[in-house]
Amino acid sequence: MREKFIEFRNVSFRYGDEQPWVLKNVSFEIYKDEWVAIIGHNGSGKSTIAKLMNGLLFPQEGEITINGVLVNEETVWDIRKQVGMVFQNPDNQFVGTTVQDDIAFGMENRGVPREVMVERIADVLQAVRMEDYRLTEPHRLSGGQKQRVAIASVLAIHPEVLILDEATAMLDPRGRKEIMKTVSDIQEKNEISLITITHDLQEVVQAERVIVMNNGNVWDEATPREVFAKKDALRQIGLDVPFIAILAEELKNNAVQISNEPLNHEELLEELWTLHSKM
Ligand SMILES: Nc1ncnc2c1ncn2[C@@H]1O[C@H](COP(=O)(O)OP(=O)(O)O)[C@@H](O)[C@H]1O
Ligand SMILES: [Mg+2]
After folding, report:
1. What is the 42 CA–ligand 2 centroid distance (Å)?
2. Contact, 46 vs 197, CB < 8 A?
């Protein structure tokens, strides 16, 4: 059995007594070492979920546990040692005058000894392939490099879960792909949980599981293949479907007997070859 790492139990949240509920009775679990993508239309509550996961916000109703510990004012500092989060805009996340200082800052706050810090800075810069920028001022970096450093800073605290909230949204497709490759390698190697909140369908299909949010509710929770099989329903809640899935659908509508739900070029080609060899 897989070990639970994050649990939301009947969580409801609103930004103020007079405000509408943003999350309504939300329950889900995230396991150790899995990669979960959270998708949903703008305003569906994804970033709110991320902020609840590391105690930037607390729910009015329900409970959130991280590694079995209830998230509240008393536990929040311990929780933040385990939950690393990177947001969309890296410029708001820098505090140091050099890349190295910036990475050190989060560790200092968590009382990591100096010798360990030096070692970890080298490790994480290597992991995100930014070794050559240790002494660079963060504002001199490109958007993609800034996000790499932001991710390195979070990795340096050795989190048990890494949450990327649209962290690759500002990058070009190539930069996005590179970072996601780096991050998923790190996730596998260190056996941590990875939660990606994203509109990038290429990213979503790589996750093990997808949580689909709609109007503050969990609309679906399944594998990417199962989720993207519900094409029309997804479109109705304002979500896109990967191009290959649409192409496969078109082919099926035109009497091409595709039996599985291909999600990438390789899988679609495989389907077409199988058909071809039966002819
Ligand atoms: N600080 C805030 N104060 C009041 N309302 C907010 C605040 N942040 C977000 N909201 C509202 O909460 C809802 C969910 O927002 P959010 O969690 O950011 O959604 P998503 O990340 O899925 O786009 C939206 O209706 C948004 O306008
Ligand atoms: Mg958001």
Report:
1. 7
2. yes
Are 262 and 248 a contacting pair, CB within 8 Å?
Answer: yes
Q: What is the dihedral of CA 89, 94, 99, 101, to 10 degrees?
A: -160
Structure confidence at residue 255 as a pLDDT band (50, 70, 90): confident
User: What is the model's pLDDT at position 189?
Assistant: 86
Structural domains of the chain ordered from first start? 4-232 (3.40.50.300), 242-279 (no CATH)
Which own/partner contact pairs does 229-234 have at CB distance under 8 Å and 24+ positions apart?
229/261
Residue type, 241: V
The CA 33 to ligand 2 mean position distance, Å, reads 23
pLDDT at 262 over 70: yes
Sign of CA dihedral 188, 37, 157, 88: positive
Which atom number of ligand 1 is nearest to the Cα of residue 44? 22
**Cβ–Cβ contacts within 10 Å for residue 103, how many?**
26
pTM of the model: 0.91
Closest protein CA for atom 27 of ligand 1: 43
Nearest CA to ligand 1 atom 4: 15
Question: pLDDT band at residue 257, thresholds of 50, 70 and 90?
Answer: confident
